[in-house]
């Protein structure tokens, strides 16, 4: 008996009634990487503890995912906790571990109802077992969803991901299962955290900072960069849509070039 696809529901509309711009499908980025920066500064500017900024940022992530679905983005990768974030205060680290765990638990069913597939990229060592359990539960529950993929990057670093891939390749070479001269870009891709994750098309960062901070280094080789002035808790789907409009206007040549004769 053939399986019947499970029905999904559309995301809730934006409170303003805003709708996504009409952009040709071919000009919509397939994969958007998001650095959710400025939570602590947002909180401190309001006389609040840094953790309150992280709490406020949860709604922004949900709204951006909703906007991605509405405009046709197929992959969103969110930088939730980096390998460098362990250097923050023990209190903030404990909060972020528990917060990531609880967000996954609270929002898993909503993501599932939207048809979002949740995946995890990052290292296991040092990560709380309870966080890993919630990530893996979300992965199992949403594995058949195809509307959009949300990759939660928890205990993730771009250099760490490449280093781990290099170690895995070295083990294969040492075991005689792979010849060194056969190692190429496709080989490295095969050993990344999520080998089938497409390259990043649009790299989006909030809060005015203009750097990639060790996020998706391999996947962002040809990404278009858009930097927002707003801190992450002030970002919603409309910011994503404007970034997509910016992306759609850019000329992506991937190292190629075409001569344009001067007017005579």
From TrEMBL:
Pfam families given in the database record: Prenyltransf
Residue segments, region Disordered: 1-23
UniProt binding sites for Mg(2+): 37, 224
One GO MF term attached to the UniProt entry: transferase activity
EC number: 2.5.1.-
Binding site for substrate: 38-42, 50, 54, 82-84, 86, 88, 205, 211-213
Entry keyword Aminoacyl-tRNA synthetase: no
Alphabetized InterPro entries for the sequence: UPP_synth-like, UPP_synth-like_CS, UPP_synth-like_sf
Cofactor-binding details, from the entry: Binds 2 magnesium ions per subunit.
Residue positions of the active site: 37, 85
Cofactor(s) it depends on: Mg(2+)
Family: Belongs to the UPP synthase family.
Subunit annotation: Homodimer.
Role noted for this protein: Catalyzes the condensation of isopentenyl diphosphate (IPP) with allylic pyrophosphates generating different type of terpenoids.
HAMAP family according to UniProt: ISPT
PANTHER family per UniProt: DEHYDRODOLICHYL DIPHOSPHATE SYNTHASE 2, DEHYDRODOLICHYL DIPHOSPHATE SYNTHASE FAMILY MEMBER
Protein name: Isoprenyl transferase
Lineage, broadest ranks: Bacteria, Bacillati, Actinomycetota, Actinomycetes, Micrococcales
């Amino acid at each position: 008996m053939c399986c019947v696809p499970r029905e999904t529901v559309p995301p809730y509309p934006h409170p303003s009634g805003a709708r996504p711009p009409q952009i040709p499908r071919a000009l919509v980025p397939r994969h958007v990487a998001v650095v959710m920066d400025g939570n602590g500064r947002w909180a401190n500017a309001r006389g609040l503890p840094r953790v309150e900024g992280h709490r406020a940022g949860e709604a922004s992530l949900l709204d951006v995912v909703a906007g991605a679905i509405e405009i046709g983005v197929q992959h969103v990768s969110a930088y939730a906790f980096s390998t460098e974030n362990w250097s923050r205060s023990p209190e903030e680290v404990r909060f972020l571990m528990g917060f990531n765990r609880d967000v996954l638990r609270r929002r898993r069913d909503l993501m599932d109802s939207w048809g979002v597939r949740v995946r995890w990229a990052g290292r296991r060592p040092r990560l709380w077992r309870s966080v890993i359990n919630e990530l893996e539960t979300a992965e199992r529950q949403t594995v058949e969803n195809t509307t959009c993929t949300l990759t939660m990057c928890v205990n993730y670093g771009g250099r760490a991901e490449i280093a781990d891939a290099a170690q895995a390749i070295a083990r294969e070479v040492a075991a005689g299962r792979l010849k060194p001269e056969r190692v190429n870009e496709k080989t490295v891709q095969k050993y990344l955290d999520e080998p089938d994750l497409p390259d990043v098309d649009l790299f989006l960062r909030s809060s005015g900072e203009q750097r990639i901070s060790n996020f998706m280094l391999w996947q962002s080789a040809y990404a278009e960069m858009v930097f927002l002035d707003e801190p992450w808790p002030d970002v919603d789907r409309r910011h994503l849509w404007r970034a997509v409009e910016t992306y759609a206007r850019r000329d992506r040549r991937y190292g190629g070039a075409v001569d344009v004769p001067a007017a005579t």
